[in-house]
Amino acid sequence: MILEYDKSMLASIFGVPLFRANQIRRWIFSRKVSDFNLMTDLSREFRLSLIERFGSVFHGKELLHEISDDFTEKLLIEWLDGERVECVLLRDDRGHRTACISTQVGCAMRCVFCASGMNGFVRNLTRGEILEQILRLNILLPSEERLTHIVVMGIGEPLLNLHSLLYALDEVTSVDGLDLSIRRVTISTVGIPAGIIRLADYVKEGGKGYKLAISLHAPNNKIRSSIIPENKIHNIQEILNAADYYFKQTGRRITFEYTLIEGVNDRPEHAIELVNLLSGKTAIVNIIPLNPIKDSELKTPSKQVIEQFVNQLKSGGLQVKIRMRKGDKINAACGQLRRNATKNVTIQ
Ligand code: SAH
């Protein structure tokens, strides 16, 4: 797959000067072209050898393309080994065009409220597979538009596939990629301290400092361990220490995600505990009302409870945002499409 190779590797594979690889890159990233035949400033002979070696720029198969009422679009992509992931294009009225991408097939974390891990972990995605999702979503936009944001909030735990992820993100944020500002790229993690520290050290050594979001979801270890099994291995304090280190190295404010689940973590006393846990930190809390999933009893709290919880956090001095649900009708959240799609899905 051509997306596995950087410019200089590509040039050396074909024994061509670097500017040829730059031309290909322009076609793929700026002109949104995935068919080598259309890359008309390359010689016919070179195009043919690209086709012979790679076929097309993309190697996944688009199994489903769904569009919801709010113009959220979702792709289900099948890779050569038959494994599938999903990725989502979100639009808002501020002009944000956000790609939500997956990093793994399945997930080993098995958070009880999340569809991605319900059938376990299969494998890491390659760097080319991660890039392909971003480029395919970019192509869904009209020719004059480009992605403005990337959130790594699809299937999988990004920090367990950090090497491939950073390659893909560094490519798309480069000037001759999609030229996205690194401030517009957010990596969301279940909270793996060693991974957060590695990411901070990557920045310390000159790497790009992407925004970090940590799935906290509970104000104490008892509740957190009951919904996120990984918390039994790395508890909240370890995660917060790693988050402090990330903030120190990068100066980037951390987001703490908090999925509100009825009767589990949505009580007034939980809000008080959360304020105590996070007060004094340069952080923002992102409240996500639970998106109910199949085969799970967990429910979203009422609007009133959500509002009260948010107000308590605000009056406790925390900065809070509520994440609106988008694309409900097309299973846009969290691994649901992959899980619900049968093996006999129609190819469009
Ligand atoms: N593995 C990463 C990315 C997961 S998806 C992580 O754990 O952060 C992004 C966010 O959506 C995470 O905070 C995740 O916990 C949350 N999430 C997963 N399933 C959800 C659901 N059914 N409803 C609401 N939020 C959910």
Structural topology:
Blueprint: H1 7-14, H2 18-30, H3 44-54, E1 61-67, E2 73-78, E3 84-91, E4 97-100, E5 104-106, E6 121-124, H4 127-140, E7 149-152, H5 162-173, E8 185-189, H6 193-204, E9 211-215, H7 221-227, H8 236-250, E10 254-260, H9 268-278, E11 283-289, H10 303-315, E12 319-322, H11 336-340
Parallel strand pairs: 4-7, 7-8, 8-9, 9-10, 10-11, 11-12
Antiparallel strand pairs: 1-2, 2-3, 3-4, 5-6
This protein binds S-adenosyl-L-homocysteine.
What does this structure look like?
The longest helix has 15 residues, at 236-250. The protein is 35% helix and 18% strand. Strand 11 (283-289), helix 10 and strand 12 (319-322) form a beta-alpha-beta unit. It has eleven helices and twelve strands. Residues 342-348 have low confidence and may be disordered. The protein starts with 6 loop residues before the first helix and ends in an 8-residue tail after the last helix. The chain is α/β, with parallel strands linked by helices. It is elongated and about 70 Å long. It has a ten-stranded mixed sheet with strand order 1-2-3-4-7-8-9-10-11-12. Strands 5-6 form a two-stranded antiparallel sheet. It has two domains: 1-57, DNA polymerase, domain 1, CATH 1.10.150.530; 68-330, TIM Barrel (Alpha-Beta Barrel), CATH 3.20.20.70. The chain has helices spanning 7-14, 18-30, 44-54, 127-140, 162-173, 193-204, 221-227, 236-250, 268-278, 303-315, 336-340; strands at residues 61-67, 73-78, 84-91, 97-100, 104-106, 121-124, 149-152, 185-189, 211-215, 254-260, 283-289, 319-322. Bound molecules: S-adenosyl-L-homocysteine (SAH).
